[in-house]
Structures are given as structure tokens and as C-alpha cells.
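Molecular record:
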Amino acid sequence: MRAFVGIVGAAAIVCAVGACGLVSGLNAYESVTCNANCDASASDEVKTPVDVTSETDGGDVPSDAEAGCAPGSPACDAGCPANTTRRCGSGCVDMATDPNNCGACSHVCTTSVAEGHPACVGGGCSFSCNGGYNVCDGSCVDFTNAANCGGCGNACDASAPTCSSAGGDSGMYACVSGCPAATPARCGTACVDTTRDLSNCGSCGNVCTTAVANAGPACAASACTFACNTGYSSCSGACVNTTNNGNNCGTCGHVCSGSTPVCSGSTCVANCPAAMPTRCGSSCVDATKDLNNCGTCGHTCTTTVANAQPACVSSACTFTCNTGFSLCNGACVNEQTDPNACGGCGSANVCGGGTMCQAGVCCMQVTVPPSVNVDATQWAVNFKTSPSWNCNASGTTTIDSAAGTVTGDNCGGTATLDATNNVAQSASGGPSVLVVRLRGLNVTNNHVLKLTGDKPIVFLVSGSVLVDSGGAINAGATGSTAGPGGSIAASCAGSTGGNGSGATTGGGGGGFGTAGGAGKDQGGGGGGAGGATSAGSNLQPLRGGCSGGVGGNGGGGSTTGGAGGGAFEISASGTITIGTGSNTAILSAAGGGSSGTTNNNTGSGGGGSGGGILLVSPASATLGSSGAIRAHGGAAGGAQGIGNPSSGENGHSADNTAAQGGSGDSFGANGGNGGLCAGNNCATASASGAPGNSSNYVGSGGGGGGGRVQVTTAPSSLICK
């Protein structure tokens, strides 16, 4: 059925389904009283009826009047293509994404969000952020500044106050303590190159602008200037199109005159050619697409659309999106980074649930802790769901690296295990490790995290670590039972204490960060050699301490040496705090003491050395006045003459005094005291294991040396998964 419309001011009188009606704008269909010709008796502005049947590539699409329905109602949808399923007036729209018909015809979306533009998502009005901005708590923010560096709410603190590019083409930013060579100047909290930065040209805050037509501002060699737009050349301080500029035809200063007064195709000619038929002054132009003469001479096109440039199409001004940007709902967006148009335009391409857009894919930004002994980035997706451990009540939680289990108090039930066992270390020569992934770790209020097993333990924490108020992490050995990763022969070449050379001689203490003490023979002669300080001053690869040598020459009455302390690494993307104020907090990996001998005239074994503790974070770990990191060596047991000597003490975790050697009887000898290592690189306390002692009948073992403690910094990574 055909419908005819008479235009009445801003309304349209229509005849549909045998009745006249009024369509006012695009919003309502109202019944009116009309004569048979649908003349509005209240108006004398009715024009000659006009056929408004819509034509589309798919055939006739009925108008609202022909369908006999109110605009936007389901009955009017017939003939609309699948991607624009609703009819508004004579056009088909997608009410789920169209900001001018959002959820209903003519429901126009607006927004007051700075750096945002209106958007329609799922039929409801929302907003999209302009290029370079991301949604954060209802606002559009720049992820390159210190308030939201690399992600929403990721504010840079005093330890790393500057937001800098993570490098390469990743588009990621991270908080750093200093500026990289590529952007060496710090302006506020940003790292910039003042030789070419538009907002900090030559000095911080010097923003470049330009009033030159057909040009944009530029910063070159620390000075503000301008750069001509594509298709324009710089001539005497102006940007001109030398293909049609009569005063600069082909080259700057070439003026067209006389018999060839106009410029076309960079050549002075007599008349304008068919391709450029319109003469504007001394220039030949195509007014259907000329920016400065669009439709008529002198009509210059401009645009306020972000990330776009003006364009002239079919003699009408419009805009085109800049390179790297795509048209979406009237805006120019970067579909590689825009969370509201990620990989395409439409409601299906809106990133939700705290995700962001990277490389055209919605993903969650994950902060990955520094990679030192293992590559933490391989588990980036795990950190999205890794647990946070809050060990904040008195008790003990035990992690066994051999079994890959957590038992005991389980940090009040928060210690669910997200771990991978038997992971090879990045540096060669080290044992495999147990990797435990967390999003936070708190050990407080006298809780003890006890580490055991056959291999070192690496804690990768996407967040911060706090050990405080009596909390402790202990990887120490107990007697001849090693801590996790302690007493591994392959890691202790040259550092395991030597065995006693005879039945009455003591074994040497194990070495690591400091040397073990030598054992003694009866009458003061030499016994087993003390273990040497290990090669390499750092804990890459991560490894534990070394055993003391066997006393008594390995005979039937021999005594085993003390075991090496274990090893653990804490690598955190946030801060590491060991004690606040005067609160006690301890990290320990002490060596084990050897037992006293049980047979007459038998030398005792040497003490085990302290283990290894490595702390890594973007800013150096902080220690309170009563916070401590210790890897002390164990002491040797007493050697028996005819009585019952005592065992040597395990290395101390609670203080910086040497573990005491076991007492010998009246005819025996006291064991050697343990060595010391406390603080970064053993700076707080450092001592080698003491040598053994002797009597006329027997010698004792030497004390184990101190271990290694390393506190260092390394950057975290921001990865989108």
C-alpha cells in the first residue's frame, strides 16, 4: 500500500490503514480529524502529497505510515536488515548501539564525562572514552599518568613516583623510580623527551600550539613549531597545497599570471580542467571534495570530533577518522585500545567487569611480580584468581615443597594453594623449586609460616607482603633435617664440611655465605676441613645451606653433621615490609646443629650452614627497628670422652648471637659455635663458623658458617590476560 504525506510545519499528516494520522517529529503517532484527502483543516500549510515509500537494496521498505504503526514499534520492523532491526521514521537502526535512537526512536544519548562521548550499549545510554583514555570509576582517565599508571587506581607512590612506558610496542605503563634513557626528563610524575614532547617542549609545561592553517603543532629540537598536514607544504610560514595554489604553484613562490592565471595539478594553466572545474581566485578546485572550498569558494570545513580531521564529501563538510581510528557511533575510536569498541563497533565489543582493551581483545590487566629465578610472566593468568593469605592469628602453617602441600592452621583457612612444583630455575646450576602464587601475603600476630621439604620455595606475590607483630617465616634446619633446598650435594660442591680423618676427629662445619669452622683432632690436631664460602655473591640460582662433615671418620661410632638451612624467595609487585615500628618480625633460614657423640672417644660432626633468603620488589624491602632477616649457622655437638655430651644448638632465629656448641664431658671437647649472617649481604651480622675444640682424648666438629641474605629491586610487569 502507498502512503502519502502532507508536510505541516514540523509534523507529517499521513494516511494509513484507512485513517489519517499525524506523525510529530519521530516520536509519536497521534490521531487527528482529517478529510478524505488528509488535509489538516487546522493548517493551510499542507503541500502537495509526496510519495515517501523508502527504497533499499533489498526492495521496498514500508514507511511507518504504510505499516500503520507507531515509529519504533515491532510492526514497523519488516524489511529492515539483520544488523539494523528496528525502524525509526524512514530509516532502520540498531537501538542497542545507536546513540541517536538508544532503546527507543529519537532517544538521544548525551554525557558530561570529561574526555568521553555518548554511547549506546545494550539499548541503554552510556559513554565511551576518547582515544588515549580508559574508563575508571565512572570517569575517563589517562593510564600514562601517576594517578592511574597502567591501570585504574594504580597510583605511583614515593618509592616509584614516575609513570613510564614499559617499553617496546606493548602500550603498557608502570611506576618507576627513575626515567629511562628514551624519555629522560621528569615533568611532574611523567617521564618525557622534552626535545619532542608537545606538552613539555624544551621545558616542563611548555605546551605547543599553532595558528597556522592546515597544520598541527610540533616540537622539534626542544622548540615549538608546526607541521603541515598531509598534502600541504610549508611556504613562507604557511601550509599550502602546491597542486592548486596560484601563488605557490608546484613550488613555493611560483605565481600564476597572464595567459595562465590559474594553478591546476601543480601547473599554471589558462582554464580549469574537468577534474578541477571550479575556479576560486587563482586556484582550480573540485568543490565536491576541497576542504577550503567545499560546495562553494571559501567554505572551509572544520570538525570538533576527537581523533578526526575535516573532510569534504559530495560538496558537504564531514570528517574522516585519523589513521589507527575507526568510525563508531559518530566518534573516532581506536579499536585496539578502546574498551567500549574493542576489536569492533557495537555492544558485543564493550569490555566489562574491570577488563581493558589491548590489541583489540578485552582482557584483565594483571600485575606480575618481578622475575628473578623463575619467569613469573608465564603464570600471568593465574594471578587473576590466586589467593591472598592472611595469616593473622597465633598458629603454624606448614608448606612442604616435597609434597607440594600446605597443612596445619592454613592461615585460618585462607591458605589455599595455587602452586607449581619442580619448576626449573632460570639460572643454570640450581635445584628445581616449588612456586607459590599469591595476590597478597600477611603473616602477623605470632603466626609462623614454616617451610619444609626437599627444594627451595619461591613466593610470587601480585601485591604486597607484610610480616609484623611477632609473625615469622622460617626455613631453618633442625639438627640433621635440612630446611627446604638445604644440603643438596650438587649445590654444595666445596661447601660441605669435610669428614673427620680418624675416629677421634671432628667434622668441619658447612659453609655458604661465610666459611664453616674446621674440626679438631685429639690434642689439637686438624680434623675435617670447614666448608668454603660458595661461589657467587647473590642468590641466583636460589639454593640453601650445606651440611657439616661427619665426625669419627665414618666408623661405627660416627656422628652426622648438622644440615643446611633452607632457601626461599619472596618476589612481590607491591611492597615488602618486615616489621613496622618496633614490632618484632623475623625471616629465618638457620643451619642445624649436630648431635653430641654417643660413643667414647668419638669426634662430633660439624654444624650446618645457614640457608638463603632473597627478597625482590620494585622498591627495596623495608625493615622496622625489630624486623630481622637471619641465616645463622648451626653449632657442632660436644665430643665424648667417657660421659654424655650435649648437642649443638640450631642457628638462632630470634637473635644475632652465635649458636653454642654442645658441651663435652670431663674428658671430651665442646663443639664449635655457629657462624652468623643477618641483614642484606650479611651486613648486620657476619661471622664464620668457629673451629672445633680438643682434649687429650678426642676432638669436636666446627660450627656451620652463616648463609646468604639478598634484598634487591626489580620491576614488576603489567600484562593483559
